[in-house]
Specification:
Rossmann fold, globular, 17 helices, single chain
Length: 443
């Protein structure tokens, strides 16, 4: 059995989805770990403790544990403010490993801060690591500019990780291009492994049955937007497009699923308040319904109840929700960016449109909803497409090959003689302080 450590500092597989910092990365970490466990791996997922009520170790699923690392206050902290706690995270993770006498064949880091932890652990123990960035700082800065809240050190850290990691896992061809163009990464050290969906969780359901279950009107045309409520996701673009579609068909409704609370509360999710104002300005307030966040078990009903799923972010490293929608037999209209232009086949499983262009989006909505034969064909195509290429089982098989490549390429060290000797905080701290640039304030 191969023992692998996942590090996902801000995105726990146990978190409730739909919040500002809980989305695709949480799903990726959860689903990939479960599939790898089914293939005989033992996975420990290290994530930051943000709640005093959770135990240190959660035996989550067969072969998968979640380890909560105390680094910073045990409460929610925006991911933009977490970098300051990564030294403590490194220290506490290594101390946990030493107490448990754990050794991992490989570490899979998720996001740049987790990769920083993995890099320091590699220096200390020799354990190799791969990294899936999930988002790149320079790409984020291009789109968010002064609204980007991450510290400037992010870019320096990412460039270090790109040189230091044993392999870099890009989620789509655009992700690889960004690594090459913005970070001058070595193309021979980049492998493309996309995200996936779980066919036992997302599958076609009769539309009338789904609408009855959700108590939605059966005769309206329903557009669905589902995901995190942050400006870059482009939900305002969908609302403005609805305003233009409305000129032709006032029976089209838009469901917006997501937020920080179970009800659509602008106080807890300010983005909902902004979007409600956009709906008023566009004259479609009576056609837009904000549902708040919904439990994952309900999502397949929302996907199946919709006539079309729309996702038009400014940029998107991958985007799991389009896969889930297509798995439920719903065509997708998505931004021609990032992973969406990789997963959505234009004019086959849906349409690709430029981001932030509501007129172009409105035209595709009108086309898809006015042509029953086209819609029916795209529904069938979408199911076949994702089942062929994007199940988590296939993704885990590809990641298994990535791990084997790393383990073949590296010279494996003896099984953690340092960690077996280090059994107290002081000794471990002395060891860590030998690392370049590592000066921990932990006592």
């Amino acid at each position: 059995m191969k023992r692998v450590a996942f590090i996902s500092e801000h995105a726990s597989p146990l978190a409730t989805l739909g919040g500002i910092d809980n989305g695709g990365q949480n799903v990726y970490v959860a689903e990939l770990s479960l599939e790898l466990a089914r293939k005989g791996y033992h996975i420990d997922i290290y994530t930051r403790r943000d709640n005093t009520a959770v135990p240190e170790v959660v035996e989550w699923k067969p072969g998968v544990r979640v380890v909560h690392i105390t680094a910073g206050p045990p409460e929610f902290v925006p991911k933009e403010q977490l970098l300051q706690y990564m030294q403590e995270f490194t220290f506490q993770m290594l101390f946990f490993m030493s107490r448990q006498e754990l050794y991992y064949e490989i570490i899979h880091a998720h996001f740049f801060m987790s990769a920083l932890v993995a890099s320091n652990i590699k220096k200390t123990t020799g354990i190799p690591y791969v990294v899936t960035f999930h988002a790149l700082g320079l790409v984020r800065q291009l789109h968010q500019k002064q609204q980007d809240g991450f510290p400037p050190e992010r870019t320096i850290i990412e460039k270090h990780i790109i040189d230091d990691a044993n392999l870099i896992v890009a989620e789509c061809p655009q992700d690889k291009e960004d690594l090459l163009d913005h970070y001058y990464a070595d193309p021979d050290r980049i492998v493309i492994v996309p995200c996936g969906f779980n066919p036992k969780e997302f599958y076609p359901i009769d539309k009338e049955e789904a609408r009855e279950y959700l108590r939605l009107p059966k005769k309206d045309k329903i557009i669905l937007q589902l995901g995190r409520m942050v400006p870059r996701k482009g939900v305002d673009n969908v609302i403005r497009a609805l305003g233009e579609v409305n000129r032709h068909n006032s029976k089209i409704k838009l469901l917006v699923v997501g937020g920080e609370s179970d009800s659509p509360d602008p106080a807890s999710t300010p983005e909902i308040g902004r979007l409600q104002e956009v709906a008023r300005e566009s004259g479609v307030s009576d056609q837009v319904t904000f549902t708040g966040r919904k439990g994952r078990s309900l999502l397949k009903y929302y996907y199946a109840a919709a006539d079309v799923f729309i996702s038009t972010p400014w940029y998107e490293p991958f985007g799991i929700t389009p896969l889930e929608a297509m798995a439920c037999g719903t065509p997708v209209i998505g931004s021609n960016v990032g992973g969406i232009k990789y997963s959505v086949v234009d004019e086959h499983t849906g349409f690709l449109v430029p981001p932030r262009e509501p007129t172009a989006l409105a035209a595709k909505i009108n086309l898809l909803l006015s042509d029953a034969d086209l819609h029916r064909t795209m529904c069938k195509n979408a199911i076949k497409h994702v089942r062929h290429s994007f199940t988590w089982n296939k993704i885990a098989a590809s990641m298994h090959q990535v791990y084997n490549q790393v383990l073949t390429d590296v010279h494996k060290p003896a099984k953690a003689p340092v960690l077996q000797m280090v059994t107290d905080h002081t000794a471990l701290l002395n060891l860590l302080n030998l690392l370049p640039g590592f000066k921990s304030s932990v006592v």
